[in-house]
Amino acid sequence: MGHMNRFLLSLLATLTLGTGSAVSFGGLNVTPRGPQNLNLETGATDLPQGGTATDATTGLRLSADQMQLAPGERLSAQGATLTTRQGGTLHAQSVTYDLKLGTVTASGDVTYNDARLKNLSAGRVVLHVKTGFVTAQGRVKATAPALSAETLVFDTRTVQVLLSGDARLTLPVKGQQVVAGSRPLLLTFSGNRLLRATAGPDAAAVSRFAPYLR
Question: How many domains does the chain contain in total?
């Protein structure tokens, strides 16, 4: 009898809703692709057929095969594609939008492309929504410009990239390789073109990247 009561309570706690229009979730506009499973006890919503989530403020758009919404905490997505207002596209097995921290974390076969960086791959990519900084960590590589490092930090406001941890870059024009070793390597872009690379930049240039290198 006790087992039956637990089963009934569990059944009643989950409400399956039909396909609906977009709903607001922590500043995001979420459009389900299919039915929604709402847990009446926790308020969490499962979207087994995924959907899309857009952030009108930042211009981010997330499309995923599956989604889970935890009110006031996070949006989790699997089989995700994230696009930015600037034209960047990120693919990952898993993406988590932490509403409290203001971060979007992508992991699992992460790839990224935009007008400046081609075929960027990394173990994990974190987008800091409030500041616009992007951190890629874990065997970071890209084909254009041809680079590799343990960590890459991109400042979207100054259009500069800092590479750290066995940083290497092949200059696109002369094919010359810049090996920074244990020193950071600062890349400065002009529009979509790599303007210059500075090995071992001064402390003032590196300081704003420091919080994102940890």
Answer: 1
